[in-house]
UniProtKB/TrEMBL annotation:
Keywords: Signal. One of its GO terms (molecular function) is ligand-gated monoatomic ion channel activity. This is ABC transporter substrate-binding protein. SMART domains: PBPb, PBPe. Residues 1-29 form the signal peptide. PANTHER family: ARGININE-BINDING EXTRACELLULAR PROTEIN ARTP, MEMBRANE-BOUND LYTIC MUREIN TRANSGLYCOSYLASE F. It comes from Scrofimicrobium appendicitidis. The keyword Signal applies.
Amino acid sequence: MSSSLTSSLPLVKRLGLGTLAAMAGLSMAACGAGGSTGESETQSSSQSESAAPVNTPEADALPTVTPGKLTVATGEPAFSPWVENDDPESGEGFEAAVAYAVAEELGFARENVVWIRTPFDTVIAPGPKDFDVNIQQFTVTPEREKAVDFSSPYYTTTQAIVSVEGNTGADAKSLADLKDVKFGVAAGSNAAAILEEQVAPTKEIAVFNSNDDAVASLKAGQIDALVTDLPTVLYLQAAVLDNGVVVGQFAPVAGDGDQFAFLLPKDSELTPAVSAAVDALAANGTLAELENTWIAEGASAPVLK
């Protein structure tokens, strides 16, 4: 935002001078005022230009949806600890902070990061996208990689179960104890596949448009438990659910846990640059620092076997 500079004319009095001299003096003062105004406008323009957010040349050269801007998509709503207060523009929350760190690594000024909202399940479908990158706990899977691109992973976690005291399975100690639980999952997540593989529940798994809808169903007693990533489960138990219970977490399917990564349109020209930025943040310790800041250190849950 440019500031307005105002110049004022000094009052010059020349006592004892004739009218002609006085008029000449006023004329000179007016000329001086004109010069001051021009200088003021130049300074104002210069300040405005210097205040404008500036990308690096490398960022401006990237083929983004809007030239000079990085359009980042996330969920609606976005939950803690990933985004605090459903306000990604604040940069608060793990994924919001990671997005801004990646943007900076790419060379974008913070003001040139534009946020939009997208449904989780439609984003992983094939087709054109209206964003450059999308960050909302997308687990990298071979099936999804057929339709979209993924960056290098920025976080690794496991799927876990949250329930409410008194619900079926709330006191489960093993996978066998979960057979008769009515589970809910968010559409597009890999939670249903994990349940089928490790539990094989006798009741049909309820699929919701979002975790928000699944939580509402859990509160209403329509499902017994919700399966989602461990940090979200811990947050729901601590801050959202009355008498919430963290039942436990599933053992990592491939030994490394679920890897979250930025999602990009299939064959995006930005994928190598975004992956390089994530790799750089992992190497210099930024990702670990942000994880410690926004995701509880040592947060865990019993592994169900």
